[in-house]
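We now fix the convention by which a protein and its fold are recorded. The integers have meaning only within a learned vocabulary of local backbone shapes. The record below shows the convention in full.
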Amino acid sequence: MRRLLCATAWVIVAATGAGRSQTTALPRTAVVALTHVKLIDGTGEPAKDDQTVVIDRGRVRAVGPSKAAITVADAEVLDLHGRTVIPGLIGMHDHLFYQLEPGASEMVVPAQSAFAKLYLAAGVTTIRTAGTVDFSGDARIKARIDAGKEPGPKIYLTGPYLDARTSAPDPDGIAKLVDEYANAGATSIKAYTSLRASELKAAITAAHARGMRVTGHLCAVGFKEAASLGIDNVEHGIGFDTDLYSEKRPDVCPDQGAVFSEVARLDVGDSDIRQAIGELIRHNVAVTSTLAIIESLVGDDDAFDPRVPPLLTWRLRSTYERSADRVKNRHPGWKPIFARLLRVEMAFERAFVGAGGKLLAGVDPTGWGGVVAGFGDHREVELLVEAGFTPEKAVEIATWNGASFLYDRHVGTVEPGRQADLVVVRGDLVKNIADIRHVEMVFKDGVAYDPEPLIAAAQGSIGAFEMADLFTWRSLGIMGVVAALVGNRARRWRRRTPAAQAV
């Protein structure tokens, strides 16, 4: 009931603009002029001051200096002094589930509805799911969003994690799985840690034949070998490149902690890293930056976002607190390793982009539970700037680079003719990138959303029981067992009662 009331409140507030803490009301018309804004347009070019952006029925009609007095008949004019406008963020590693306690499958929680709202509230207007634990649930929320029945971003569905299924390599079996995922509606494939070289090659061949791209959280196969096999994208960055591990054996995924420890001691100028950069670029392989999830492993204060616990149900909140305590109090030797790994990854991403590589951005709401949808995407952009990118370049990485990788030429920049996927932020992102957290309104296809009720609707909902859970095969099986036990007990009870004997 609480979630229903929150969702109802979102509809009312979004429609009326009532009860909002921000000073600018949502526009009421399909033609809107956003005036006197600082514009970071997603191209990487320097920000422009005092600009006007005209939205006309879902698309950007005009962009130019406010002093030029761009006029459009019937446009609602919003004076947005003190705001920055950027393109809608494009999350390229943005799951629709939430994980606490790495390796504990029972702590992987589908969170489609809550995360869809959080992504949109943060200005993430397009996501690629980059792997799933509940493909049918992801497909259902996508269908509801596309039909206008629920708020959320545009969703590019990635199939379930593609792992090795047999003790010996089975390329044909992996290729069949790729076809199954494509038939189910997947638009990309996520190769996972145990997939071996011949299987990865089969997956890439099958995916490309279906017009899909392949990304990978790799381990059994290193970056250079994956690039030579034709992979399109690798996730997380150089800390996950097992080619750099001195004891790596072909087709075997080594201990990840050992890999982290060794890579953390490297320097971006080392020949092995330089060679990896060269091979990735030569084969046109994109890299997805997920700095926020790496930072969460360091255990510094920035790893503990106070906005996360209120989003969880009471049962998950206690698990989150235990996980946070473990991260804070882990063995003292691990904290400097993860801190160095984060610095190496930042240096790698600068060098990769500097050499001409395509860097994408995402949040990856997994690990021990320290990052969630939307809020983690903001932190990713902040960390890109901490890594040495200009705010304009960080925005380009988090917008246009993702759009171009997805072959989506309708979004990613603020230019005439593009879809009006825009974010209005209170503050100046060039002076303070942390202002990206102050989202005032989000436009998706020209429709304006207020982030506050979207976030309110997600409060306390991650981990909540959903009616759809009743109809999974696992739940139906459990209910069948329970029903049989209850039926047997009832029959025994009736046989023992006098009334039953009389009958």
User: Anything to note?
Assistant: The longest strand covers residues 31-39.
